[in-house]
Amino acid sequence: MRALKLKLDERKLVWRFCAGDRQAFDELFDRYADRVLGFAIHLTRSRADAEDLVQEAFVAACTGYSAFQGRSSILTWLLGIAVRRWRDRSRQQTPEMVSFDEELDSDADVLQFEPNPIERQVIDSISLADALGKLTPPFREALLLVASQGLTYREAAEVTGEPVRTVKWRVSRAMHSVRQSLNATGIVA
């Protein structure tokens, strides 16, 4: 019953928002900005870029609220806007060239240490972020939508504009790739 009431409250909020109610926008932002930001941080791998992406998504929601048809949840709609904005931004960027002129002289240049439990958690988090970063954008999007945001495959398909089967396949392949990457670092056996 609570879920039904929440859905009704959510729909009322959207209709108020669509009618131009500023307070409804503020409430939408308060409810969903943190979730969209968390997703965007994993997607962009940069807090600054993620914050820009959230702002762009909410501005786009304000200007394009008439496009919301109520067939999905507000979160799914907002995540879909964020994904599309990120894809547009990614297409416009050119890869940064990195020079590897300096090489390590020997293994002595590499720090060797035995991490304590907290350091191990940090290293594991960095390794996971690195593994996610190695995924191509479509695979990273699918995995983050399902694993990080808790969307169903159907909801993730709505966000990405892909068939459900494609999303399932991408999540499966992405998980396999992340496991392999973490296995190579010794995190996952």
The low-confidence parts are: 1-6, 104-111
- The proportion of residues forming helix, as a percent range, comes to over 70%
- Using only C-alpha atoms, the radius of gyration works out to 20 Å
Structural class: mainly alpha
Using DSSP, what is the number of strands? 0
The gross shape turns out to be globular
Q: Under the CATH scheme, which class of the largest domain? A: Mainly Alpha
Number of helices: 8
Gap between N and C termini:
43 Å
Number of domains as seen in the coordinates: 2
CATH architecture of the largest domain: Orthogonal Bundle
Largest sheet: none
- Sheet-strand content, in percent, reads under 5%
Helix and strand run: HHHHHHHH
- CATH overall fold name of the largest domain: Rna Polymerase Sigma Factor, Chain: A
The CATH homologous superfamily name of the largest domain equals RNA polymerase sigma factor, region 2, helix turn helix motif
Task: Walk me through the topology.
Elements: H1 2-18, H2 22-44, H3 47-63, H4 74-92, H5 117-133, H6 137-148, H7 153-160, H8 164-185
